[in-house]
Every structure is written in C-alpha cells, then in structure tokens.
Amino acid sequence: xxxxxxxxxxxxxxxxxxxxxxxxxxxxxxxxxxxxxxxxxxxxxxxxxxxxxxxxxxxxxxxxxx
Length: 66
Fold this sequence. Notes:
By secondary structure, this protein is mainly beta. The chain contains no helices and six strands. It has a four-stranded antiparallel beta sheet, with no helix packed on it. It has a two-stranded antiparallel sheet with strand order 5-6. Strand 3 (about 35-40) and strand 4 (about 40-45) form a beta hairpin.
C-alpha cells in the first residue's frame, strides 16, 4: 500500500486509485479531476471542460481511459 496524496487545493478532497499498470503508474480521481500518478508524482488531467472527470484505467503504454 502506498499513499498517493491528493491534488492541490481546491481539488484535495481525497483521492481514489482505480487502476494500476505493470509499471506502477496509477489512474484515478481526486476531487472532481482525473489524475495519473507516476514516478512519485500526481499529475492533474483536469475535467476536459466538463464538471468532473475520472480516469478509470491505464495500460502499460500509459494510455488512460475515463
């Protein structure tokens, strides 16, 4: 188990990891934004212009779906 942290305010209401690939990269959601976690850092993927987003899967090439 590893604490991934959260995105910075105002999106830091918690985070949920939904998928991990063989390289240890993680896709999930933090607040209302999707994120990818790799190399020890969480990157905000935003909402693609909508009110919220969730990254639900990541493959071994780093491609995220949501």
